[in-house]
Protein 1
Amino acid sequence: KQEVTQIPAALSVPEGENLVLNCSFTDSAIYNLQWFRQDPGKGLTSLLLIQSSQREQTSGRLNASLDKSSGRSTLYIAASQPGDSATYLCAVRGDTGFQKLVFGTGTRLLVSP
Amino acid sequence: GAGVSQSPRYKVAKRGQDVALRCDPISGHVSLFWYQQALGQGPEFLTYFQNEAQLDKSGLPSDRFFAERPEGSVSTLKIQRTQQEDSAVYLCASSLWAGAGNTIYFGEGSWLTVV
């Protein structure tokens, strides 16, 4: 059974810092991996999707990497801003069956002005 | 509509009451998912529809949970005889095609509190 772990559970940084969020998964047979953002009381917004054949994806100040063989992904946020404060969730899709996403428990990020 | 719409947004139910949660996916989206998110946890898969067919219901926690999508668009998640452990956010999501590479769009969730 696929298990996804995110470290740290919570992170507090001053504005402007670069930071890294970590995600690990137990079964390397994945189709893709997604990073989502969740604001309090809101649904999930997809940030980056990395196919299993890819090593990284970039969008603005965000960069996600994937090392499928070791079961790890990182989300790098450059020059953090208070508006980045949210919970960040990592989710993987298996490469068999259909498309169920298995989520980690998330990292709660607080960026202080 | 422009996004996935869920109703009600908030529901307080007395223990033992039946509840129905509605999801309007993005128009034309083939795939529809339900997830359950307990406080402080990541979402957990409940069930998946491709059009009107329920292809996977392995995540439904008990036979008190039932989901349907009779015409391949709107879906309803029903919980019978609610219990306190059912308190959670119920998230609906849809994607255009059935392929795993397609972006999944989530609604804002229905927040259920059982008292």
Protein 2
Amino acid sequence: GNSVTQMEGPVTLSEEAFLTINCTYTATGYPSLFWYVQYPGEGLQLLLKATKADDKGSNKGFEATYRKETTSFHLEKGSVQVSDSAVYFCALSDRGGANNLFFGTGTRLTVIP
Amino acid sequence: NAGVTQTPKFQVLKTGQSMTLQCAQDMNHNSMYWYRQDPGMGLRLIYYSASEGTTDKGEVPNGYNVSRLNKREFSLRLESAAPSQTSVYFCASSAQGQGGGQPQHFGDGTRLSIL
């Protein structure tokens, strides 16, 4: 079956620190992988995606590389800001006709000045 | 650009009451979804509609029904609300693309409390 396991939170970092949030997956076939971000009181927003092995998704200074050999899609950012405080979700799409997503449990990030 | 619009934003119900959550998208997407979000559990799929005229059960469909009214609208109904259905409900939509990889676009959620 399809499942996503991501790093337990919460994570608290100082501004300008390096961020890594681990994500590993189990899937039948070759999924697409996503990171979504949820700011307080809002819905989820797509942060970045990768659709095949070795693809790197990037957006707003965040990056993640689709690693088929380790079934991972870790999220990284070199220098976090207070405005990055949010909950981050890793997800995979099973490529079926309905484009269903399978989510991890989310990792709450707090960045302190 | 409205994207995905959900109504209401907040609702309090008594056990046994019924209600319908509304969702509409203006992106001409074929697929629509309903999720619930509970602390420590991420998002779980309740029902989805791959295209107009079709609906299917997701991971946690018990206690819910859905209607794909037209291409734009996808509603979620609680026939007899239970405290276990207290949650934040999100609607999403996506285009269909060959081989997957199409992102889902989310509404801002409905915060539902069942007393």
